[in-house]
Design brief:
Blueprint (H helix, E strand, L loop, with lengths): L7 E4 L24 H16 L3 E4 L16 E4 L2 E4 L5 H4 L2 H10 L3 E2 L14 E3 L6 E6 L7 H9 L2 E6 L12 E3 L5 E3 L6 H10 L5 E3 L2 H5 L6 E3 L2 E4 L4 H9 L3 E4 L3 H4 L10 E2 L7
The protein binds citrulline (CIR).
Length: 278
């Protein structure tokens, strides 16, 4: 497969975005607390920023499915294969037919997980950017641990399972972000001891960028990495200088309207060219 030089990123406009139910701690106290004007403005800024480093492809939003703007959760892309999500909560399950139809229409091969396994796509499954065919998978809140061996078999990849321990960091992409050349941004306290040991075993100390709680709560790990660019909601001066020291350029885009729903930059995107590295 020929790898594209300009990555394609799937985004879905927040036309119908709102907080209308509570399925994670961030949503508590924010029901009907967002406005279309603010969310559209912040999403436009993210789209424009990403457009300078990638081609943004847009999926039409569907009325009645307010979290569909978080395209990371549609499923997992690997080469031309798409593994659709099976959402844990009924509040999001209605997104599934729209996502499946979009990927079918765009020529992806649809590969199914076994029935009854919850899996929330690239919210919980993130490819390493240093080691080919290595997938990090979070479980414990949304995705089932049973998705890990199934994905390993279906995609012929190594899957490293990480148990998430803090309900505020309910998807792996809220507390862990593989970056170019194997650098890894993560919030250690979001993981159980075995998961932390696994991270430390597979990511060399010089490539681990552990964030403090204040950065984690600002969704700094929920970053979009395109080459040497890291796009995120906010980074402290300390985190910014550590990322710059590792050769990354940090771009902040305020996304607080989406944080009321428990998501930020990475959740609002899905990379459509996930290299198979084979
Ligand atoms: N972390 C992500 O990948 N996506 C954010 C999803 C937010 C949505 N309100 C949810 O709880 O599923």
């Amino acid at each position: 497969m020929i790898e594209r030089t300009v990555p394609r990123i799937l985004m879905c406009a927040p036309t119908f975005f709102e907080v209308s139910y509570v399925i994670n701690p961030w949503m508590t106290g924010h029901v009907h607390d967002t406005t279309l004007e603010r969310s559209q403005r912040q999403w436009d800024a993210l789209r424009d920023t990403i457009s300078r480093h990638a081609d943004v492809v847009q999926q039409p939003p569907a009325e009645g499915w307010p979290d569909m703007t978080f395209t990371a959760n549609a499923g997992l892309v690997f080469g031309n294969t798409f593994v659709p999500s099976h959402f844990r909560y009924a509040e999001r399950q209605g997104e599934e037919p729209y996502d499946r139809a979009w990927f079918e229409r765009h020529g992806f091969d649809i590969v199914e997980l076994p029935g009854g396994v919850f899996f929330e796509g690239a919210g919980d499954a993130l490819f390493d950017r240093g080691v080919a065919r290595r997938l990090w998978m979070g479980h414990g809140h949304r995705s089932d641990v049973a998705a890990a061996p199934a994905l390993a078999r279906l995609l012929d990849v190594e899957v490293l399972s990480l148990k998430l321990a803090d309900p505020r960091f309910y998807h792996l992409d809220t507390c862990f972000c593989p970056l170019a050349d194997g650098y890894t941004l993560y919030f250690p306290a979001a993981f159980d001891a075995a998961a932390l040991a696994l991270i430390e075993q597979h990511v060399p100390p010089g490539q681990r960028i552990a964030v403090h709680e204040h950065d984690a709560l600002d969704f700094a790990c929920n970053a979009v990495n395109l080459g040497r660019v890291v796009i995120l909601n906010r980074a402290s001066a300390d985190l910014r200088s550590r990322l710059e020291g590792a050769g990354f350029m940090v771009i902040e885009v305020a996304l607080d309207e989406f944080m009321k729903s428990g998501g930020a930059a990475k959740c609002l995107t899905l990379k459509l060219d996930e290299a198979t590295g084979a």
